[in-house]
């Protein structure tokens, strides 16, 4: 059985990981309408968070953390806008590979996971308080 402090630390690592994930998703959403700066250039490329398990040296428990954010290698979109400064010879502008719909779904999942970890901490705290109340009687 895990030590109560271990339980709190595992949930806290989940909170930190999901918080970092939401930051990456927010950056993606903020750049969803970006284009290339010059003709033939690449616009903002969607970032994907990478998570890894790590062993906490103090507790000996496995915890999760975001280790990196990698570029999504999916294709950029082309939009016809011959008047745009970044348009190529055919009049197409390269736009980002960020889909706001996908990002909003990812954000919702990250928020729910964050809430689940937060609920775990709150439930653990309530159980400790209840145990102390029973011991006082």
What's the order of the H and E elements?
HEEEEH
Strand content: 15-25%
Shape: elongated
Radius of gyration: 22 Å
Structural class: alpha+beta
- Low-pLDDT regions: none
Count helical runs: 2
Return the average pLDDT rounded to an integer. 90
Key descriptive features of the protein:
137 residues; alpha+beta; two-stranded antiparallel sheet; 2 helices; elongated
Protein model, in words:
The chain has 137 residues and is α+β, with helices and mostly antiparallel strands. It has one domain. 47% of the residues lie in helices and 20% in strands. The chain contains 2 helices and 4 strands, in the order αββββα. It has a two-stranded antiparallel ribbon with strand order 1-2. A two-stranded antiparallel sheet has the order 3-4. It is elongated and about 80 Å long. The model has no long low-confidence stretch (mean pLDDT 90).
What is this structure, in a nutshell?
Helices cover 47% and strands 20% of the residues. The protein contains 2 helices and 4 strands.
Give the helix/strand layout.
Layout: H1 4-30, E1 47-55, E2 62-71, E3 77-80, E4 92-95, H2 100-136
Antiparallel strand pairs: 1-2, 3-4
């Amino acid at each position: 059985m895990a030590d109560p402090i271990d339980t709190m630390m595992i949930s806290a690592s989940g909170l930190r990981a999901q918080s970092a994930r939401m930051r990456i998703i927010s950056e993606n959403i903020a750049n969803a309408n970006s284009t290339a700066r010059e003709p033939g250039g690449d616009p903002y490329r969607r970032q994907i968070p990478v998570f890894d398990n790590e062993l906490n040296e103090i507790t000996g428990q496995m915890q999760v953390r975001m280790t990196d954010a990698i570029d999504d290698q999916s294709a950029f979109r082309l939009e016809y806008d011959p008047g745009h400064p970044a348009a190529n010879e055919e009049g197409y502008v390269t736009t980002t590979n960020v889909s706001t719909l996908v990002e909003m779904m990812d954000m919702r999942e990250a928020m729910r996971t964050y809430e689940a970890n937060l609920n775990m901490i709150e439930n653990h705290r309530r159980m400790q308080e209840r145990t102390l109340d029973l011991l006082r009687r």
